[in-house]
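Spend some time on this chain, tokens included, and walk me through the fold:

. . .
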Amino acid sequence: MTVVLTGGTGFVGSRLCAELLRRTGGSVVCLVRGEDAVAAERRMRTALGEIDEEAAASPRLRTVAADLSADRFGLSESVYGQLAQEAEAVYHSGASVHLAAPYERVAPVNLGGTRRAIEFCTTGRAKHLHHVSTLGVFLAAREAGTERVDEATRPSLRTCGPFGYLRTKVEAEHAVASAAADKGVAVTVYRPGLVLADSRDGAAPAGDFTTCVIAAAIVTGCYPVAMGSLPASPVDHTARAIAALSLAPGAPGSVYHIMRPEPLPIRELFERVREHGHRIREVTAPQWREKLYVHRDNPWARAAYALDICTYTLGLTLERRPPAVDGEATAHAAARAGVSVPDTGTAYFHRLMNRLHQDHGETLAPS
């Protein structure tokens, strides 16, 4: 079995690649940005080596230099045709994740790349499309009049709010739904919630939302009154769940909400920071914005100040709280597939905070 993976160098994608290498016996072909094949392979194996040396060394890992925003992924007709005939499934995890970017900046990869993944699935042999979306497509659902969502809820441009990145993810979901209905493509959609640091070592990218708001709280000495609760899961659990569910019976046509059983209260996130010894206090949302502005010379405060999405994600107003998210059907399917419930207790947050200080300690000093 040969599968094609996009986004393999990303936070979720690299771990999904490792899981697919563990759970399947064929080739995992990663489409990776790179000047040439050598550069693309070096980039892929380096990213994988940071989390799983055995997977990075696997002879079943293949890399192709590609561009999701280009026709045929930027591949020659012969390479594209051969791969289209060989592959049995596509795991489309590739995306330009810029929460503050305008629609026009991220659409070529997020929407264009999805359309090209669909086209690839209908070229050569039939392929199963595993599409990685996000529960962020429902971030503004409460404001749009929907207080609770589940796996059967259809996202819209109203439920995602005024954010370019999330708009592209809604449109991408609509595109894969149309491909299933009109072209007969076998499609499974996975909607991860807030992707948290790796449960094994607390690792997270510098641009990670959770990392940003935690660091901003430490730098400013405060955090906002947050009324929201978010579906969330550590990145390793997210990848493990996607891989296991994708290989389980009944996957085609399903939609899965990848999250821990209970949403994460945002206030709990900041309380964990206090438990780690940081003196941070709760303030009103306007006071928090003011503090972020005062500390704008610090990169974390500046980044948090620029993220308008914080109003919805943190639940800074009653109207803009995230909706209640139901993932019960997914939880049952994951349990049948042998995926355990992630542990996000005290020890987990201790690892997260220790890694944050290890990687970014010099920028975390309160001022």
In short: The first strand starts at residue 3 and ends at 6. Residues 190 and 256 are 5 Å apart (CA to CA).
